[in-house]
Amino acid sequence: MKRIIIVPFTSHGVLEYLDALKESLAESLRRAGVEAEVVVWSEVLKPPIKCFNWERKQYRAQCLIEYLRSTLQLSGVERSTPVLGLGFLDGYEEGLNFVFGEAMPNLSAAIVFSKRLRQEFYGSPPDFNLYFERLVKEAVHELGHVLGLDHCRSPGCVMNFSNSIVEVDAKTRYFCNECSRRLKG
Ligand SMILES: [Zn+2]
Ligand SMILES: [Zn+2]
């Protein structure tokens, strides 16, 4: 059985959701026919300042992913074990204003930035259920990339590319049949 590790990068906005998140991740994979044991890393990693862009006030996704991989490797986690970082942070990548998440399949690692998944970010009242639903979708999506999937246009599939919160809300937390088939193969 595949072991997947979720690693918090902040306490705020993350820790209270982790138990439910790991169940939801395992459930999405199970529905795709993949049995996985999802575990939560016991410490909160501090995002390194070298990954912070002071002009943009955002963290660079690839920098955090590389830091995540090397930190876990130092703690004895095999390089092939999928790891997913999660932080209540704002992230970007070169050429993009922001990203909800990013994956580096060659490192078997990904990150989800959850600051823009909150209703408050858009000036709306808090909605914890909606925030959690978005967290799950983005976590499953980035994990899908780590497990070898590309973007998918099948309506509702979690592997749809989301460039806005409207697009996140439009998809489900599940893999379509084609993506499920690829995951198993
Ligand atoms: Zn993607
Ligand atoms: Zn799909």
TrEMBL record:
SUPFAM superfamilies: Metalloproteases ('zincins'), catalytic domain. Gene3D superfamilies: Collagenase (Catalytic Domain). Binds 2 Zn(2+) ions per subunit. One is catalytic, whereas the other seems to have a structural role. Its cofactor is Zn(2+). The active site is at residue 142. Coiled coil: none annotated. Pfam families: Peptidase_M54 (PF07998). PANTHER family: ARCHAEMETZINCIN, ARCHAEMETZINCIN-2. This is Archaemetzincin. It comes from Desulfurococcus mucosus (strain ATCC 35584 / DSM 2162 / JCM 9187 / O7/1). The lineage of its organism: Archaea, Thermoproteota, Thermoprotei, Desulfurococcales, Desulfurococcaceae.
